[in-house]
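During the reporting period the student researcher (J.K.) took over the structure-prediction task from the postdoctoral fellow and processed the backlog of single-chain submissions. One of the processed entries is reproduced below for the supervisory committee.
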Amino acid sequence: MIFLITSGVLWGTGGLTGRLLALHTHLSPAAVAGYRLLIGGTLLVVFSAATGRGRPRGRAAWRRVAVFGALAAEFQGCYFAAVTLTDVSLATLVTIGAAPVLVVGFEQATGRRRLDARVAGTLALAVAGLGLLVGEPPHGVSTTDLAAGAGCAVASAAGFAAISLLGKSGIPGLNDTTLTGYGFLLGGLALLSVAVPTTGAGFTPGPAALALLLTLGLVPTATAYACYFTGLRTAAASTGTVTALLEPLTGTAGAVALLGDRLTTAGAAGAALLAVSVAAEAWRGRGATPV
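J.K. obtained the following structure tokens:
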């Protein structure tokens, strides 16, 4: 559980860092997401090589990398689009909040996990918390942008849910670090190949921009995802996505403190409910054998 909790907290810095990078460099959401995956993937590939984990071996392993890369590109691209259309808090909350509902629904439909009263209660707390947190549109965001941003966030949640489920099923000749590293490299290249001829991906490589890029690639990407997939080895995918609700809590706190985003009384109550749902899932998942 400590790996899953750590990943959730580290992810909470991703939206904030990405938004600061976009404000500083005027990069598009696709470019920010592409650089994030490219740098994070490079760091993981270097780490994988340095620790003797090697590269993907076999056709099946490379197919898994390709699928992972496509999902990563979709997940990150839609997430940063949602951040741009709304704000960090709303985009993060909808993305990460919808993911456990999607994963639990899949596990229930396939018989991987029984939807007992405790699981249903945890999800109900999470959904209620999200409803309070995103009950009012962000200040200055139009109804059209709100709807488009919410749609992008739900699409991002579907990609994250798929990645979580994919991370539960191993494949010969491919370990978690290698899969994530090469998948992120592929996803980053795909996003940048879209950004370059459309919105552009160039920026002035000053110290601040480079520091933000390195932070985005290292902290909420390479380190956070390495922790996440390590935690998924001994936890259900739904447990991982519920503990990932720590991301919106961390992201919201950072956005309120540093970017001036507003959190109402209802939003604060929603944050408290989310915290309770994460604690309940963490307690329930202690020592449980993942399916």
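The committee noted the following: The mean pLDDT is 81.
J.K. will present the remaining backlog at the next meeting.
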